[in-house]
Specification:
It is built from 10 helices and 2 strands. It is an all-alpha fold. α4 packs antiparallel against α5 and α9 packs across α10.
């Protein structure tokens, strides 16, 4: 098995489906390009316009669904058909878009989307943990602990999806799964469980089960833990 095949095999199911769909559209695009004919004056054109426009619409949909309308991939696609779908008509134009799809598959299989998602999530987590720290420092340790747990749980679910594990379980079960899969070792698992326990106690009103200092340590620990996976 090649390195590329191994990378593809470890993709989360959603990304694997997107990559498979792009490969289908690459093959379809090559078929569409083969429909090119020449007019009497020698002008090249794709003979089957409905097939061409259908393919282009599907390409736009998959690129937007995969990377977002503001992504570099979408901007590149727009540059490849500056006059719109209706005026794409030659095989070289179609094959240029096929090339973009090939690059997009490579981006998916080499973790571009996961890295992008984790960086964005990391920025959000940093902001939320700053809010939680402020709450804790101003006498609202219970709210701070709950917010810290929300951040940690969301991060664990994202990590589980990345590793192809069940992200729909309870946070403690996801923590178990990540340890069992070798994503991190027993000491880190134990720390994560302790942070989850503090958050659970806060959520259930067991405010005497933890102190402001323990919440501060929890938030510092969660921040450090997430920096490994969600940092730049």
């Amino acid at each position: 098995m090649s390195d590329l095949e191994r990378a593809a095999a470890t993709l989360p199911p959603r990304l694997a489906r997107l990559a498979d769909r792009m490969r289908e559209l690459i093959a379809e695009g090559k078929d569409v390009a083969a429909l090119e004919r020449r007019s009497e004056s020698g002008f090249p054109y794709i003979q089957d316009k409905p097939a061409l426009h259908s393919w282009l619409s599907k390409v736009i949909n998959i690129i937007e669904a995969s990377f977002g309308e503001q992504s570099p991939q979408c901007r590149h696609l727009s540059q490849l058909m500056p006059r719109g779908i209706q005026l794409v008509g030659a095989s070289y134009e179609v094959l240029s878009i096929v090339g973009l799809l090939s690059g997009a598959v490579d981006d998916l299989e080499k973790g571009y989307l996961l890295k992008q998602e984790f960086l964005i999530a990391g920025e959000l987590f940093d902001s939320l943990l700053e809010q939680a720290t402020h709450l804790n420092q101003t006498g609202y340790k219970d709210a701070a602990a709950v917010l810290g747990r929300v951040v940690l749980e969301d991060a664990l679910r994202r990590m589980a999806r990345r590793e192809g594990l069940d992200s729909g379980e309870k946070a403690s079960a996801i923590n178990d799964s990540l340890r069992n899969a070798g994503i991190y070792a027993q000491p880190r698992w134990r720390m994560v469980q302790a942070w989850l326990d503090i958050g659970n106690a806060a959520a259930h009103g067991k405010v005497s089960d933890f102190t402001e200092l323990e919440v501060a340590r929890m938030l510092e620990g969660v921040s450090s833990f997430l920096a490994d996976d969600f940092g730049a």
